Amino acid sequence: MLLFRFRKTVALSAVLFIGTALAACTDTKANARADSLAAALASANSQRDSIEGLMRGAAADKDRALSQVVEATKFADQVDAELRTVRGLSSKVTVNKSDESGKAEAAGAQKDILNRLTQLRTRLAARQKQVTAVLDTLKSMRTDSSATATLLFDLNTRLATREKEIVAFQEEVKALKSQNLVLVAEKAVLTDTVKAMDVRENRVYFVVAARRQLLADGLVTEEGGSRGFLIVKLGKTLVPSRTLDDAKFTRADRREVLTIPLPRSDRPYKVVSRHDVGLLEVTKKEKDGSFRGDAIRITDPAKFWATSRYLIIAEK
Fold first, then answer.
1. Which stretch of DSSP H or E encloses residue 293?
2. Is residue 155 within 8 Å of 40, Cβ to Cβ?
3. CB of 148 within 8 A of CB of 54?
4. Is residue 40 helix, strand or coil?
């Protein structure tokens, strides 16, 4: 019976430990997953910020390219104006060859036209380089814009996925919290149960009283003996009653109460219950198994109380 109770106590303690470990395990897993999601979200946000920076830079490049296109358009208008001027000057070149002043004017106009055309070609060549660079930039920007759009689409998809994972994780955390509350409640119940069992398993009762008092309280009965003179039974032996009232005993915890006081040190006492007297320390032992002293001391509580929870000591 004692072995069964011990195993039951150990089993309850193991369940209590497992419940605590399970709660700690679920908390650790939840924290690890929360950290992982937070890191993934931070990485996605960093990539988004980087792409937005690239887009802002591309927009600035686009604005500069458009500005250069506007300048090139203005330059083309200036070239057209210059050509119209040159065409107007060409009429001065055709003069009468016999007119010396006309020849001089025609030569000057011809030289002016050549100079203007040379300058226009130089400026036009430079502007053509700029326009070519702008075209290359726009082509590159179109390519970059396409790649950026793809990256943004992928990033938005990732962020949407992360958001769903976070929502699902929040639901899991709520469920874990509910489970933890249940575990805490179960742990409290198990703790109280183990404590109650522990107290119950170590609860003992003892009484030290005169023979007459023990008989009156119904804690002992007389057995045996023989008829003597005047019909008086002699040699009766006290034994514990089959039914014992806890209220008639002093309650104690066998782990704490190792010493039991005796009411009178000048009177002999004897253990009526089935406890082993050899596990007691007393001041003086008699040959008949009785003892005297101020108190008795239990040397091995586990063995001593294994016989019975109820210790009955009678004053002889």
1. none
2. no
3. yes
4. helix
Closest listed residue to residue 262, CA positions, set 315, 220, 213: 315
pTM of the model: 0.45
Cα–Cα dist 91/88, whole Å: 6
Per-residue pLDDT reduced to its tens digit, 34-77: 677 667 667 766 766 776 676 676 667 667 766 766 666 666 66
pLDDT in tens, 255-287: 999 999 999 999 999 999 999 999 999 999 988
Place of tokens 């007119």: 99
Residue 273 CB neighbour total at 10 angstroms: 20
In the structure encoding, which two tokens stand for residue 9, read together? 């106590």
**Sign of the dihedral through C-alpha 270, 314, 310, 250:** negative
DSSP state of 289: S
Burial of 25 (0-12, 13-18, 19+ CB in 10 A): exposed
